[in-house]
User: Which sequence fits this backbone?
């Protein structure tokens, strides 16, 4: 079987980038990864037909080996349609996740976290708080404000929601003091600049028993991880009433 | 065998599909939608039971769609194994549907989500599963997988609440990755052999270079292993399943992973028979059992606990199919049917517990046995069955696998036998913990604040509340499933015989090939294949010429009045 080298290289590149993107925590990147991988697979299926040939329309004067094998193209077509449906479904899921939780990240399984906390264990790699830049979609002011208030934003959904709440409250009253306070408190607790927070918390906790994550003093009570982890209450947490018209919704 | 009747096999896929279309067309009229859905499934069950009775006595039958001959056209193949899976799966889905209808009627007021989507999607799920069971070529198998997976994405995220979306994203991404892997493997197999027809592959794959064979084999198993939730690839399952509504979780837990197992069994018997990677599979099986059940012991939520036992019991199935002996495979087939029923039943019962008490967290449960003895009974039987306590069917299946393992008598099979005994005990411990906490202790003794619904003033009060919380329309389907699981124990003898015949067919492969290609082409390879299949028959007693091969399984639980049961004798003539 002969294979077109250009297509082969292209396929490899698609797979490589696709797998890289798939490993990201951000959902849109995961989706892009899936799209690239599925295109890579489609190219692979195309390869299996062998080298290019004539269209498979029967002509008695043409030998069988001159034709292109049509079966891979039939498979390919089906695969494209299926991938298309799945990608649109994923998009809908991601949008829904964004509407509900204001985040473009894969959230942790809270029940898992709770069970792990029973055992009083801490895995440096697993449990390190991720200080991530949350999303590409929020207003700049919003995201920066929320990050100042709560550097852990994005590690669990309720927290992130609470952080947005806080930002609203701060902006509403014009109380800039509040955010400063929160920042300094977080600083004092961790003893470092927020940028390095993730590393230090992870390392600091590795030897000691698992500590309750710091809670901002003026945080919404629902941000308490114990309350949010309760499965009884977690059945369908009240979706935040749609996107706030003042932020992100009308851009 | 009346082959004309079997020509209606594709209807097993078509009826649910058309039902879905009509149900969707009537999305405004809930009762019409319900009637169409239930009607379509009842028809499917009748059709599939007829088909099972047709193939009970003999071999396989292939339907060449649109009349195209085998390696070129699409074939659907129904043999004993496929027919059994079809019947069990459609009875399960019908019971779960009735349960969902009951639940929908009970929760009409707090309308939870777009129910008009539920019925059509559910039927599409059934169609996809049937298609996967009947698929005669790899690509059709892939399409079957995609149909039911896509339906399952919709069902899992039904209502679009936050926790379901979160769980749904993980589930969808993992499933898509496994499908991509499957598709890549299909491409590679086509490049290597020039066909995707399973029967054709069975003849051609053997001629490939051994290392190529190994690569393709492992890739297929990994792709199916993700779907079947085999150990290192199983962590998506307890994360995603418990968030769905009870009927959806029940049907997912019962069916979807088993389709993965079905595909693995086909891979191991039809495409790549032999003992090439059996040791690796057994190590994986042991890890699946142990890690799964240890995870279950750590959980406080019943649904999550059951999800972990699901993983751990997938380990048994992998063990059985890795034995590569007819007795091991027979036990596996029996165990698959048993486990589909049990796991579904347990999730349905958990749904009832959740309705009665308002939570499925055992830390907040108590006193259920006193409040509702029926619920206690409905939980107790399948729970003991899951743990494999004699005389239930779980015991019969596990015994068969251990028999196979002991007969093979290598260090790895002995390890597996020990691991499976250990897993059984730990399963018993896990379900006993639910039982003592949820059912036996008083609600006041609960570790956390018990649910208010459990704290009625008097027993009479709470018994009266049962009627409201546990409507007959939900209890009856659950009870039917419990009865079905008991039937597996009562008719263990004939069913085991049937499974052994199915296993014999699958290892011999001639019935399958003959159905697809017709006798002429099969004749050339028949002798070779039969010789090959003979290596899978293990002689337990070396001096009696194999006469007592399957004796332990036959004698252990055979009902005394077996002759009263109208079951035709299976002329397998292989082992006597």
Assistant:
């Amino acid at each position: 079987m002969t294979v077109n080298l250009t297509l082969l290289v292209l396929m490899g590149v698609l797979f490589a980038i696709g797998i890289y993107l798939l490993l990201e925590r951000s959902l849109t990147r995961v989706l892009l990864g899936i799209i690239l991988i599925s295109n890579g697979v489609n190219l692979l299926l195309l390869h299996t037909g062998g080298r290019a040939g004539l269209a498979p329309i029967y002509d008695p004067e043409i030998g069988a080996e001159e034709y292109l094998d049509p079966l891979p193209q039939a498979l390919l077509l089906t695969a494209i349609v299926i991938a298309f449906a799945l990608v649109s479904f994923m998009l809908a899921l991601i949008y829904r996740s964004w509407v509900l939780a204001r985040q473009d990240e894969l959230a942790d399984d809270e029940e898992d976290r709770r069970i792990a906390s029973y055992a009083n264990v801490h895995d440096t790699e697993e449990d390190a708080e991720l200080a991530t830049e949350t999303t590409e979609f929020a207003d700049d002011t919003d995201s920066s404000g929320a990050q100042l208030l709560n550097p852990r934003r994005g590690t669990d959904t309720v927290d992130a929601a609470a952080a947005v709440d806080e930002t609203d409250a701060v902006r509403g009253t014009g109380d800039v003091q509040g955010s400063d306070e929160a920042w300094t408190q977080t600083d004092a607790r961790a003893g470092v600049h927020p940028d390095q927070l993730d590393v230090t918390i992870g390392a600091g906790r590795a030897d000691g028993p698992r500590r309750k994550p710091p809670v901002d003093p003026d945080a919404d009570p629902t941000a308490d991880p114990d309350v949010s982890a309760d499965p009884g209450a977690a059945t369908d947490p009240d979706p935040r009433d749609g996107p706030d018209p003042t932020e992100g919704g009308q851009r | 065998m009346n082959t004309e009747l079997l020509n209606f096999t594709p209807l097993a896929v078509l009826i649910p599909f058309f039902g879905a279309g009509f149900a969707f067309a009537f999305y405004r009229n809930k009762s019409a939608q319900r009637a169409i859905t239930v009607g379509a499934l009842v028809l499917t069950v009748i059709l599939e039971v007829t088909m099972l009775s047709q193939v009970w006595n003999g071999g396989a039958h292939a339907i060449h769609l649109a009349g195209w001959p085998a390696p070129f056209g699409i074939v659907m193949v129904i043999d004993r194994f496929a027919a059994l899976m079809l019947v069990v799966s459609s009875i399960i889905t019908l019971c779960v549907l009735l349960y969902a209808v009951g639940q929908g009627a009970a929760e009409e007021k707090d309308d939870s989500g777009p129910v008009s989507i539920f019925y059509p999607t559910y039927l599409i799920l059934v169609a996809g599963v049937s298609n996967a069971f009947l698929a005669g070529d790899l690509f059709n198998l892939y399409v079957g997988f995609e149909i039911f997976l896509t339906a399952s994405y919709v069902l899992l995220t039904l209502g679009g609440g936050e926790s379901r979306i979160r769980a749904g994203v993980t589930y969808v991404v993992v499933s898509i990755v496994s499908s991509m892997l499957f598709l890549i493997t299909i491409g590679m197999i086509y490049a290597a052999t020039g066909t995707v027809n399973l029967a054709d592959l069975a003849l051609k794959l053997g001629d490939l270079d051994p290392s190529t064979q190994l690569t393709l084999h492992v890739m297929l198993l990994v792709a199916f292993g993700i779907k079947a939730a085999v150990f290192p690839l199983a962590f998506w399952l307890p994360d995603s399943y418990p968030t769905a509504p009870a009927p959806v979780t029940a049907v997912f837990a019962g069916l979807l992973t088993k389709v993965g197992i079905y595909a693995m069994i086909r891979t191991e018997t039809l495409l790549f028979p032999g003992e090439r990677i059996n040791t690796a599979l057994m190590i994986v099986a042991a890890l699946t059992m142990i890690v799964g059940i240890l995870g279950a012991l750590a959980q406080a939520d019943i649904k999550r606990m059951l999800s972990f036992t699901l993983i751990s019991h997938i380990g048994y199935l992998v063990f059985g199919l890795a034995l590569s002996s007819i007795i091991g495979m027979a036990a596996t087939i029996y165990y698959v049917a048993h486990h589909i029923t049990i796991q579904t039943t347990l999730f349905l019962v958990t749904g009832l517990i959740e309705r009665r008490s308002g939570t499925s967290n055992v830390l907040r449960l108590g006193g259920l046995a006193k409040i509702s003895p029926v619920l206690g009974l409905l939980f107790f039987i399948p729970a003991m069955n899951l743990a494999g306590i004699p005389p239930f069917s779980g015991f019969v299946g596990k015994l068969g696998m251990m028999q196979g393992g002991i007969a093979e008598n290598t260090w790895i099979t002995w390890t597996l036998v020990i691991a499976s005994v250990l897993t059984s005990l730990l399963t018993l411990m896990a379900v006993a913990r639910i039982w003592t906490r949820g059912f036996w202790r008083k609600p006041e003794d609960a570790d956390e604040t018990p649910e208010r619904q459990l704290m009625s003033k008097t027993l009479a009060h709470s018994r009266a509340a049962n009627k409201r919380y546990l409507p007959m329309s939900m209890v009856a389907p659950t009870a039917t499933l419990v009865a079905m699981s008991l039937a597996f124990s009562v008719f263990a003898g004939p069913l085991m015989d049937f499974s052994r015949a199915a296993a014999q067919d699958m290892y011999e492969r001639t019935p399958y090939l003959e159905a697809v290609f017709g006798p002429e082409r099969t004749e050339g390879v028949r002798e070779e294949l039969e010789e090959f299949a003979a290596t899978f028959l293990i002689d337990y007693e070396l001096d009696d010429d194999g006469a007592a091969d399957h004796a332990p399984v036959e004698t252990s639980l055979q009902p005394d009045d077996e002759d009263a049961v109208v079951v035709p004798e299976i002329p397998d003539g292989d082992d006597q």
User: Anything to note?
Assistant: Residues 140-251 of chain A have pLDDT under 50 and may be disordered. The radius of gyration of chain A is 25 Å. The domain at 5-101 of chain A is CATH 1.10.287 (Helix Hairpins). Chain A touches chain B at residues 1, 22, 27, 30, 34, 37-38, 41, 44-45, 47-48, 71-72, 75, 78-79, 82, 85-86, 89-90, 93-94, 96-97, 100-101, 106-107, 109, 111-112, 115, 118-119, 157, 231-232, 234-237, 239 (CB under 8 Å).
